[in-house]
Amino acid sequence: MQRVFDERAMEATALLLVASVLLIGASLAGIGGGVPLVAVLALIAVTLAAGRERLPRPGRRLGQDLDRYVRDLWVAPALAAAASAFVFGATPAEIQTVGGLLGFVGMVNYFLRPVYHAGYSLAGRLVETLA
User: Fold this and answer.
1) What is the pLDDT tens value at each position of the chain, 131 positions in all?
2) Angstrom distance (rounded) from CA 59 to CA 33
3) Three-state SS annotation for 76-110
4) Where are the beta strands (DSSP E) in 1-131?
5) Residues forming beta bridges with residue 61, ordered by sequence position
6) How far is CA 65 from the centre of its chain?
7) DSSP label at residue 81
8) Which of 4, 79, 92, 104 is such that its CA lies 20 to 30 A from the CA of 20?
């Protein structure tokens, strides 16, 4: 169970980083937060979600189930679309900041994995002790 939890934490980090790259890329192209950005990101998310069974299956690499990453890739543009809708009307610089914040949250999640492990282990031992 702990391994599944760790894989999900890594996947969340990866998806947040992809969402960050999408927003930062849009901002560097001079695109601000408006209907076009939200619509394009939502369209990418819907397309990836609809075609997720046809996407390549890279299998397990470096201890990670990359099939799950590819299958859930649609979440990244959906998250980016939601974030850009939240700051609707933002300038490109503000969109870049939001992208940076998403990347920051992803990296905080990554660096907190040892804390997650410790908490999971502590909870498991507590349950064993009480049982």
Assistant:
1) 677 777 888 899 999 999 999 999 999 999 999 999 999 999 999 999 999 888 878 777 777 777 888 889 999 999 999 999 999 999 999 999 999 999 999 999 999 988 888 888 888 888 888 87
2) 36
3) HHHHHHHHHHHCCCCCHHHHHHHHHHHHHHHHHHH
4) 60-61, 64-65
5) 64
6) 15
7) H
8) 4
Distance CA 40, CA 63 (A): 33
What tokens does 8 get? 């999900």
The first and second tokens of residue 44, run together, are: 């990418």
Indicate the burial class of 23 (C-beta count within 10 angstroms; 0-12, 13-18, 19 or more): buried
Where are the domains positioned within the chain? 1-130
Strands (E), 56-122: 60-61, 64-65
Structure tokens, 58 = 């890279």
Q: How far, in Å, CA of 26 to CA of 20, rounded? A: 10
- For residue 60, report the phi and psi dihedrals to the nearest 5 degrees: -100, 125
How do strand 60-61 and strand 64-65 relate by DSSP bridges? Answer: antiparallel
Which pair of structure tokens corresponds to residue 7?
A: 């894989």
